[in-house]
Amino acid sequence: MEVVEESVVIVGAGIAGLSAALGLHRLGIRSVVLESSDSLRTTGFALTTWTNAWKALDALGTGDTLRQQHGALRGNVTSSTISGLPVFEMSFKAKGKKLLLEALADELPSGTIRFSSKVVSIDESGYLKLVHLADGTILKAKVLLRAYPT
């Protein structure tokens, strides 16, 4: 049984987990991301990303990379029934989930994401969280973030 101390442990290498890890990395805070599968879960086709989401991606430093791969869609247009002219327009972009996950993962330091790391239980030990993995490893975490759907 290996016991490893980590400041920040994030459970789940989806969009939320990788975004959190990248945001912390940009602030100089090291984290480890635990993913139960053996690779990024890139199933699914496209995500619609509105303006505020692009602002978040820009803050993480991945917005420009993703914009180069995707053109703008017309978006949501509301037209006047009298003139037929647009009275309101909201643009958005759609991108593949795979491209988004890869863009986030590519910006993380090597070794940040630990694949095939299934969490079996979590205990408390004082101010630490003890994260027990299926392989017998125990991670002592000061901060634990759950970033996976229930």
From TrEMBL:
SUPFAM superfamilies: FAD/NAD(P)-binding domain
Keywords: Monooxygenase, Oxidoreductase
Pfam families registered for this protein in UniProt: Lycopene_cycl
Protein name (database record): Zeaxanthin epoxidase
A GO molecular function held by the record: monooxygenase activity
Domain of life: Eukaryota
Coiled coil start-end: none
